[in-house]
Each structure stands twice: as C-alpha cells, then as structure tokens.
Amino acid sequence: MKKYYDIIIVGSGAGGGTVAQALIPLVKKGLKVAILEQGPHYPHSYYTQREIEMMRLFRFNGAWPVTSGEITIAAGQGVGGSTLMYTGVSFRLPASVVHEWNVPGLTIEDLNPRFERIEKDINVITPSEKITNENNQLFKKGCESLGWPVKKIPLNIKNCEQMGFCNLGCSSGSKQGTLEVQIPEAIKHGVHLIPNCEVLRISEKKIHAKVQKTPKGTLQGPWKPGNVTIAAKIIVLAAGSPGTSGLLLKSGFQKKLPRIGRDITLHPAMTLYGVYPKPIINYRGFPKTFYTDQFSESHDYYIETAFYYPFVSSRHLGLWGKDLVETMSKYNQLMTVLILNHDTTIPENRISIGRKGAVCVHYRLSKKVINSLCHAQIQSARLFFEAGCDQVIMPCASSPVIHRDKNDLESLKSLIQTRNFIPIKTPVSSAHPQGGCCMGETTEESVTNSWGQVHGYPWLFVADASLFPKSAHVNPYLTVMALADRVAEGITHSQSDDL
Length: 499
Prior knowledge:
Elements: E1 2-10, H1 14-22, H2 24-28, E2 33-36, E3 64-65, E4 72-73, H3 95-101, H4 108-121, E5 124-125, H5 134-146, E6 151-152, E7 155-156, H6 182-188, E8 192-194, E9 197-203, E10 206-211, E11 226-237, H7 241-250, E12 262-265, E13 269-275, E14 290-292, H8 296-299, E15 301-305, H9 310-317, H10 321-328, E16 334-341, E17 350-353, E18 359-362, H11 367-387, E19 391-393, E20 401-403, H12 409-415, E21 429-430, E22 434-436, E23 460-462, H13 477-496
Parallel strand pairs: 1-2, 1-11, 2-8, 4-21, 11-23
Antiparallel strand pairs: 3-4, 5-7, 6-14, 9-10, 10-11, 12-22, 13-16, 13-19, 14-15, 15-16, 17-18, 19-20
C-alpha cells in the first residue's frame, strides 16, 4: 500500500498532538496532514480503573527497563501518548533552565506567550480545596510544620470527577491531554489519524510502516492491516525520546548526526510512603496538588504529592515478606510522596539499537543522583512524621520500616545512607525520558536547530522531549507542547512560499 501526504507526524502525544493542531491553517489551505500512532485509539469506555488491565496503556506494561536494570520507564502507547496516563501536571519551563540550556535562538520571551496560549487551550488551573484529598492535605501540613514552601501544582483538568485513577486513563475525559483537546480539533479540520501504525524506518521523504490489527475494544482506524510506504514533503518525529532517537538510529542517520541518542536524562523518581495512624482518603480526589522546591537548588529534587494503586505501590515500597504484607494491609492509611530528581547528562547514558532491532536505553544512576535520592528520603521521612505518620518506609534505610521513635534528624541520617542503595533492588522509576536529539547549532553538539529541524535535512523535524539538551527540572509536558508549537510555526513559515 502506498500513500502520499504533504506532512506526516509520527506520534500523537504532547508533541505530535500539538503540532497537528498548530498545522490546521495549512490544512485549511489544502495541505494533507496525517498523524501516525503506533498504539491503539482508546475510547473512554476502555478505561476500567482496573490496575492490571490498564497496564496495556503502557509500553512494557509500565516498566520498560533500561539495560542496567537500575530504573524502569513508564511510557504510553496509544492515541494521546503519555498524556493518556499522566496526572496533567503543567509546569512552565523555568527561565533558569532555559538559560542553562543555552540554545541560540531559544528564549523565555519566545516561550512565555506559547505557554500562556497553550495553558488557556488545555485549561490549566490551580487546584482548589475541593479536589485536595487528605493525602495532599497532610503533605501541606508536614511541609508547613518544617517551614518549607508549599506550592500548588498547575493542572490541565476540566470538571474533574475526583476518581483518582489519572494514571490509568481518564474515563470522564476531564484530563485535558492531546486525546481530548489537540487531536479532536485537528481531526475536525481535516487532519487524518492513523492508529496502530508502527513506523519501521524513514528514508528520503518516505516513511516505511506497518499497520497492525485493531485491538478489541478500541476504535477502528482508516487503513487496513499491512505494510505501507508513505511519501511526504515533511516528516515530524514526535515518538518520545526513546522512540524518536530509535527511529533515526534504525534509519541510519547517525552516520551524519553522531549525537543521536546522546544527552539523555530521565528524572529518576522514587515513590515513598508513610503510615498514618488511621484511614485517610488517599486514592480518591486528585492525586497530585502540592509540591515543595525546598531542595531543588541545593540537592536537585522536588518533593511532590502522589498516590498509586496496590500493585504499583507494593513494588515501590521495596519491601518483602511480612513487612510487605503488613504495610499493604494498611493501604488506606498510606501517605505518599514522589521524589523527582533533576539529573544531568553523562556520556555513558544514551539510546541505541540492540542486536534484534529493539530500542535500548542505557542509563546508570550517577553518584550525584544516588546522593540526592538518599537525601530526599531523609527529608521525606521528616515530612511524614511531621504530618503525623507513625512509621515510614525508606528503601535506603538499614531497616526500611522506621518508627516514630527514630524521627529526629540525626537518627534518620544514621539509618538512611547511600551504602544501603542497591541498584536494581532499590525501586527507581521514570516517566520523563528527555534528550537524544537535542537542539543546538552544529552536528558535533546537537541533532536539530532551535526550531526542531534536523541538521542537513530540511524536510525532517523533531517535536518532542528529545529536543531537551538537559533535564527540564520540572514535569516536561507543557514544555514539550511549547516547543512543538514552535516547530509547527517554523514548518508553517517554510511552507508559506509553496502555497
């Protein structure tokens, strides 16, 4: 099967969905634009809120392992990409990070109007008390007792029903990801959506792909199963950091662009737990409404509120046997926080293609990251105890279950130490793969320019978190959308002369 389009977008997440919406003016002028999505198109009725069933929304069931085994990555597969199962956190990229990136032509003055416009489009709000459950309230109490700043997390939600299952898909459509906002708008104006379409490789203005059968319970796409070759004047890659870098590597672009797959960061995260003396409302209401940046500058991490489901929680606890059974029996008493580390790029961490053609993420936790995660456990333990918890579970403690009689800082420091951090055994995860096709001026230091155009290939663009030269420090989705909007603007200008 052969197809022709003016513009093809590979991926439908924060980057691909935003590009599709931003190209609507070109569609109105007659250009043919399509989105290719490897995953299915899920209807709202698909989201059953059953944890095991909803692991289908993720690649590798939500635990894509890096080659070292030290960390697992959660990445979405479906129309909407990872915005299907994120919590709608919509931070702006800090001006300090833009300065740190030091990409010529990319300024906070350019990004701020895009942030403002996108925030309105996806309904970014400050969470109200109505959706702030007890888990979040206790976080606020603990931070305030310690004298730490407590800030509200900006969220892109609308008419939230407070079911609490954001990370398993939003059955009400309240979470305003690309499946709810950008993609429907793009389709309405003539952009074609092709789900279940795996792109195998790209060549000069061509895409070689395979359409899979439509999984049961998902929406049918317009193309029949089989191999397809698509000719396109412009190709935009927005398949996520591992996906975009992997596709370029499979297609041989590293011969002229040696930085493909390099400069990656993951925001290593740990979910930590305290046990409150009585049941609290933790899994209903919105899971994430507060954070503190008390240790962002000094120790490279945020502490955010969070809450997860039984199977994921049992893994994050890092416990075994009797301790695990006893702690999970108190599931409705658990208070939870998420540690989000601002990691830095190191040469060893990269994306490659394995012997069998699979995308491999090579990543080892640096000593700096491990020190940061252990410091975060000490401070989180203090927070839990100040909030009223009787005990805390810290994976890097000599004895992971710590009781209130050890709640002073010196005791916590003696119990929680880096020597107890055992790679692979200590549960660390990521939902924010970044880098691999970073922006810059030359092929020696980067893969694209500041407008996402791949060096030496005027028909090829990148529009996802692959563009980040370093960690964004904050949850990256709004930044991805702003950069994707910028990429689409550059494409629009390049096409104006042809219309």
